[in-house]
Amino acid sequence: MRITVFRRLMEEEFGAMRAETLAADHVLSALGGRTADEALRDGYSAKEVWHAVCVEFDVPPERR
Q1: Which long-range contacts (CB under 8 A, 24 or more apart) does 46-51 make?
Q2: Which tens digit of pLDDT belongs to each residue from 15-57?
Q3: Residues 6 or more apart from 63 whose CB is under 8 A from it?
């Protein structure tokens, strides 16, 4: 998964403003206490980050 796809999925699921805020501010324990943006900068794949977000926010399986 490309980062652009990750960003699109975040916007579709949470809305543009909330997606941006969540990616920048919400710390995910599944990513070692990083935000989504930090995890992407630190080399986590966009797919790993998306999965962590989906688990954290109970995104239904059909939208994962």
Answers
A1: 46/1, 46/2, 46/3, 46/5, 46/6, 47/1, 47/6, 49/6, 50/1, 50/6, 50/9, 50/10
A2: 999 999 999 999 999 999 999 999 999 999 999 999 999 999 9
A3: 9, 12, 13, 54
pTM to 2 decimal places: 0.93
CA dihedral of 33, 34, 36, 40, whole degrees rounded to 10: -130
Burial of residue 17 (CB within 10 Å: 0-12, 13-18, 19+) is exposed
